[in-house]
Write a structure and sequence with these properties.
- It is a single chain.
- With about 180 residues, this protein is of the alpha+beta class.
- It is about 30% helix and about 30% strand.
- The chain has five helices and ten strands; from the N terminus they run E-E-H-H-E-E-E-E-E-E-H-E-E-H-H.
- The chain has a four-stranded antiparallel beta sheet with strand order 3-10-5-8. A four-stranded antiparallel beta sheet has the order 4-9-6-7, with no helix packed on it.
- Strand 1 and strand 2 form a beta hairpin.
- The N and C termini lie far apart (about 40 Å).
């Protein structure tokens, strides 16, 4: 099912077709439904992007729902998509030499799958629904279409992903 934060169709129980406006400094606004307090996670991840970019992502994304403990992505699986958690929490786990390592948990408006998407490679961790979770899957083919057809999208999108990966690496380095 295609979704859009600007449509009357709900993408999660709290959407109800209503919207609020979030101002992003002196730039454009992004229309969001009530109950999206954690949208800051997504907006921070993609801080270089414009509201029209967000609209493209949401309109072309597929909504998916997962029960608690359902495996969303499996370590070693190929991936060509990005995922945005819209409701619930996912946990990131890695299996290596028979040892399970819990990496982190990601809540609403967090993004995952970006490393394997960028590298066109296998997923390095399992992603598991920690509770009932809904997310939006943005297919890599759609992203590539936006990159080739929407002026400036490539720069904004890839710069945002680079900043996200840099922040995650810094956070990881703080544990070492």
């Amino acid at each position: 099912m295609k979704v859009s934060p600007l449509s009357d169709e709900p993408i999660a129980p709290y959407w109800q077709g209503q919207e609020i406006r979030i101002m992003r400094s002196n730039r454009d606004t992004v229309a969001l439904p009530p109950g999206t307090e954690n949208f800051h996670n997504f907006a921070t991840t993609f801080e270089k992007m414009e509201s029209s970019d967000f609209q493209l992502i949401f309109e072309h994304g597929d909504r998916m729902s997962f029960a608690r403990n359902a495996k969303i992505l499996k370590q070693g699986q190929r991936n060509d998509a990005l995922y945005v958690v819209t409701q619930g929490t996912v946990r990131i786990e890695r299996h290596h030499d028979g040892i399970l390592t819990n990496i982190t948990k990601l809540g609403p408006w967090s993004v995952f799958g970006e490393m394997s998407y960028l590298e066109k490679s296998s997923i390095s961790t399992d992603v598991i629904a920690d509770e009932f979770t809904t997310l939006i899957r943005i297919d890599g083919a759609d992203i590539e279409k936006f990159v080739s057809q929407v002026p400036g999208f490539a720069r904004r999108f890839y710069q945002s992903l680079a900043v996200t990966l840099s922040r995650r690496l810094r956070a990881t380095n703080s544990y070492i």
